Amino acid sequence: MRFYITTAIDYPNSRPHIGTAFEKIGADVQARFRRMEGLDVHFLMGNDENTIKVSQRAEELGVEPKPYVDDMARQFQEVWKALEVSNDDFIQTSEQRHYIGCQKFIQAVYDAGDIEKKAYQSLYCDGCEEFKTAKELVDGRCPNHPNRALREVEEENYFFRLSSFADRLLAHYDANPDFIQPESRRNEIVSLVKSGLQDVSISRKGFTWGIPVPFDPDQTIYVWFDALLNYVTAIGYGTDQERFESIWPADIHVIGKDITRFHCALWPAMLMSAGLPLPKRVFGHGFVYRKDESTGEIAKMSKSLGNAVEPMDLIRSFSAEAFRYYFMSQCPFGGDGEFSFERFADAYNSGLANNLGNLYSRTLSMAVRYFDGDLAGASAIDATAWRAGLDLSALVDELRSLMNTFQYNVAIQRIWAEVLDAANRYIQVTEPFKLVKTDVEATRAVLVNLAEAIRVISILIKPFLPSTAETFYSAFSFAEGAAWETVSYSDILKRPDIADLKVTAPLISGKPAPLFPKIETKAG
Ligand SMILES: [Zn+2]
């Protein structure tokens, strides 16, 4: 079964910041989880290139827009790759497949009678690339860009008759209670649509960068109408109809809460007009706020506020896995999160260095030191001894439901509190470092059980920390059974073959490589 998941496409007028990365990692965790559940996942990301901001930025740098956006697309993908984001495709909206699909789509909406030309005069924010109504302004300024002056713009544009879709949209929300998630966003959108929708301008005059309106080439397709279409043009709308129909509709659009209304009102109305099925779900995630260590002030992380942290800096200083762990465990995906180096170091040390990494190195070190890595022939095998009292099957059911609703931070809490704590407690209770002096075979049995715990943990953390998970799985010879790529939640409860169990992790001078070296903080 297909599972089509997308993220928002990004403006390449500057490099990605960690707020953008939060979204991509959240979508990646979902894509990896769905692959583990046996679905045929198609995961799309991309850059939103047909915007004035982008052509202005290229002009500032003295380059043509196309080489500029191509270079930025390369830089964005480099960051996503470094963060282990497993997207299957990356669309640049300056590509031919988007150009063709976009023109076909706007023509279909025009032919359906939902586009009209009218004169328009309003205040325009260059930062948001949208017109602002008086009630949206704060002290006469755009609330998102208080440092930029609004421009008064008057021109003849094409308008999409969004106002005429309000009833159909409300009926759709009603019939599909899961369409907008989380619940708080759903309520916002329902009341927005109930309060009345205005027709939206979908073209601009006199721009050379962007896609011309096919029935009036003096006009260029306006940024939102163009950008939203990436979800269909990337999979063949207008260029490969068969492929398009085999993938569309999207199972989920993962986007930021600030653009939920475009995805939940404008986008479904556009699709209704063009006669296409609607996406099944839209998930509006929260934002990551940056806490300033010296002043304690909290600000939204964005490029325009100049307080963004480069993901590559964090990846180089720590690791991609540490980055993923922090954002998925400390920031609720549906709500808002906070970033500070202090909190990052705390979460890293307690969750990764002292817990996950420590369990790994203790288990492996003992297996190597006491048995030369060979655990074959253990008697009294009991795969549940390390997790006495833990109902793993019930936990897996719970995790499935948490993953399905994007409650990643709760899922991680549950894995750490139930499974990792059980395994660490098992070491404390059995004390293999003492036991080995009196009963070698009983010690071997304890280490076999710990190896099994490491196998179970590897599968549980697979969507979140893909490379650590693989390191865990291949630490012992379990990989000789089921190949890592195919291992899923359903393997957790299987009893693996441990007859010839041995350490297969690479060793440095007889010791496992430390996975998460502790971060030294001022407090020590
Ligand atoms: Zn603005």
List keywords for this structure.
alpha/beta, Isoleucyl-tRNA Synthetase, Domain 1, six-stranded parallel beta sheet, four-stranded antiparallel beta sheet, 18 strands, binds zinc ion
How is this fold's topology laid out?
Elements lengths: L1 E6 L10 H19 L3 E8 L4 H9 L4 H18 L6 E4 L3 H16 L3 E11 L4 E3 L18 E10 L5 H10 L4 E2 L1 H12 L5 E2 L1 E3 L6 E2 L2 E6 L1 H6 L1 H4 L7 H7 L4 E5 L3 H15 L7 E4 L2 E4 L6 E3 L10 H7 L2 H11 L6 E3 L1 H31 L20 H13 L3 H23 L1 H4 L4 H21 L5 H8 L33 E2 L2 E2 L12
Parallel strand pairs: 1-2, 1-12, 2-3, 7-13, 12-13, 14-16
Antiparallel strand pairs: 4-5, 4-6, 6-8, 9-11, 10-11, 14-15, 17-18
The chain binds zinc ion (ZN).
Structure description:
By secondary structure, this protein is an alpha/beta fold. The protein has a domain at 341-512: Isoleucyl-tRNA Synthetase, Domain 1, CATH 1.10.730. It contains 18 helices and 18 strands. It has helices spanning 18-36, 52-60, 65-82, 96-111, 166-175, 183-194, 223-228, 230-233, 241-247, 260-274, 311-317, 320-330, 341-371, 392-404, 408-430, 432-435, 440-460, 466-473; strands at 2-7, 40-47, 89-92, 115-125, 130-132, 151-160, 180-181, 200-201, 203-205, 212-213, 216-221, 252-256, 282-285, 288-291, 298-300, 337-339, 507-508, 511-512. A 6-stranded parallel beta sheet has the order 3-2-1-12-13-7, sandwiched between helices. The protein has a 4-stranded antiparallel beta sheet with strand order 5-4-6-8. Strands 9-11-10 form a 3-stranded antiparallel beta sheet. The longest helix is centred in the C-terminal third of the chain and has 31 residues, at 341-371. The two termini are 51 Å apart. The structure holds zinc ion. Zinc ion (ZN) binds at residues 125, 127-128, 142, 144-145.
